[in-house]
Amino acid sequence: MFSALGFILLTRSAGIYILGSPFVDKATLHLNSKFTKGGTFRVTAKNNSDKNPYIQSATLNGKPYTRSWISYDDIAAGGKLVLTMGPTPNNNFGSAEADRPPGI
To answer: What are the CB-based long-range contacts (under 8 Å, 24+) for 8-17?
Structure first.
């Protein structure tokens, strides 16, 4: 399921997922209230197609999101991640040292 969203598990113990190319245009995760406080987490991939496999930009809850990864805690908090996809890599997305996954 996570790979369909474009999330590739980097490290299970830290709950870090690398952002990749989603297979779906939209998805909603219904979060279990016993374990999270978020209610739902929505993922939308704008311009998603086999010709647009690269993330151009992202927003999380309406704010610019520059990290190339997302944490379990971000997902569990609920909200909405919007990925804008394109035909060529955006070499600036996630390239800053602070935007790279921890420990890499």
So the answer is: 10/69, 10/101, 10/104, 11/103, 14/71, 14/102, 14/103, 15/71, 15/72, 15/73, 16/69, 16/70, 16/71, 16/72, 16/101, 16/102, 17/69, 17/70, 17/71, 17/72, 17/75
pLDDT at 33: 87
pTM attached to this predicted model: 0.91
Structural domain spans, the chain: 3-99
The fold adopted by the segment(s) 3-99 is: GH92 mannosidase fold (3.30.2080)
Taking only the tens place, the pLDDT of each residue in 30-87 is 999 888 887 999 999 999 999 999 999 999 999 999 999 999 999 999 999 999 999 9
